[in-house]
Fold this sequence. Notes:
single chain, alpha+beta
Amino acid sequence: xxxxxVGRVVWYYPSAEEMTHGLPMVGTELAAIxxxxxxxTIVNLMVIDSNGNPHSRQSVHLDQHDQRDDxxxxxxxxxxxxxxxxxxxxxxxxxxxxxxxxx
Length: 103
């Protein structure tokens, strides 16, 4: 799990209602910056539409496990961030394993 922090970039997936009522978008995701963190799964965002205009979204679900795919709005980590987190976890496990052999 990646710990959300203010300033991190995520992909925002608008709700079906947002897409039909004026949130300009191209493709399926929009860039967003985390503005506030409630916990590991709920954040406030500044969403950037496909025209470059900012929109605020409050109490957005951060889908940490890529399991959500419904009509409600949510956000996810970008593939690069997930890859970096996996590499970090792998390195930490290797270091932990090496430390237990040294003990």
